[in-house]
Structure formats: C-alpha cells, structure tokens
Amino acid sequence: MVTWLRTNKVLLPGVTTPGRLVARVRDEATDRLYNTLYGIPSPRQRVIPQMLLEVPVGRRASDLERWRKSPAATSGKNLEKALERAAEILGVGLGAMPLPPEVPHRRMVDLARYGMQATASTLRRHGPSRQLAEAVAAVTEMVPPPDVDPALVTGFERLDAAYAAAAEQEHVDCR
User: Fold this and answer.
1) H helix and E strand count, the chain
2) In sequence order, which residues have a C-beta less than 8 Å from that of residue 6 and are 6 or more positions away?
3) How far is the first Cα of the chain from the last one, in angstroms, to the nearest whole number?
4) pTM of the model
5) Cβ atoms of 150 and 121 closer than 8 Å
6) C-alpha closest to that of 33 among 92, 119, 89, 112
7) CA–CA distances in Å: residue 119 to residues 33, 93, 142
8) What are the distances in angstroms from CA 67 to CA 30, 111, 117, 127, 142?
9) Tens digit of each residue's pLDDT (9 = 90 or more) over 120-148
C-alpha cells in the first residue's frame, strides 16, 4: 500500500492513520463474526451462555468454569466424572451446531482459547453477541469430535467398571 502511494506521489498520511484504518477493518470483521455466530443458534439456545456464566446458589463457580477444569489425577472415579462432564457438555447442544463455512476455524480456535481462559465475570461484561460467540467456541472445543467411536466410550465404561471392581476386591481383601 505504501509503495503504491509513493510511486504515485501521493501525500502520505501519518503513521497512525493506516493503523486506525486497519484497526477499524479488523473490528468490523470481528463484529461480523460475532453477528454470524449469534445468528446460528435458536432463540432458546441464545439463553444458554447467560446460564453458563451465572453462579448457581450454593456453588462457588459457574458451570462454564466447572467444565473447564478436568479431573487432575487419572483414576476410575475421575474417568467417570470426565464422562459425566462430557455428557453434560453435549447435553447443552451448543457444540452440535453446524458452523457456516465463512467462519474461519482459526478464529473459532482463538475465541475458544479466550473463552476457556477468561473468568465468568469477564465474559459477562461482553455484549450478548460476543458472549454467545465465545460460549459457542468454548463449548465446541470441549465437545469430543463427532467421529469419536462410541465403542471407545463403551471401552472407557468397561475400564471404569473393571477399576471399580478391582478396587472393591482390594478393599474386601484388606479386611
């Protein structure tokens, strides 16, 4: 851009003018992305992000914050908790929405990264279209891919049952 301006002897603007132009174009593109993602879910699904960001009575964290933290140690009980968590995330229905082709995957990954790192109070401060876009992206990243074999989940359930049976037998043997 600057080369063309110089070769055509156009009076060059200050450094901040092209910077502001680029920033404005990027903001417009981001707003288009938020509005595109806001138009995908049904009106019932648009309420879900507010519900995910609210802290239920008697709890210390919102559902989104609770979903972000997977069990730390690998054990049968934690595997069971992880599967319950995955079923709960799938039950919301935000991750199963088909994304339009004009939504770049890289932008969804960036939105998901921000949605997974920001606190619920920070996400609540954003406008409804941005809240929904970040929640959709975060939940989409948390949902297992559709090509995961159901036999794998069944295998995890069997493994969990085997661990539970072995732990129970060990507990009986210790008596």
Assistant:
1) 9, 0
2) 12
3) 80
4) 0.63
5) no
6) 112
7) 22, 22, 16
8) 26, 16, 12, 22, 8
9) 788 888 888 888 888 878 877 776 665 55
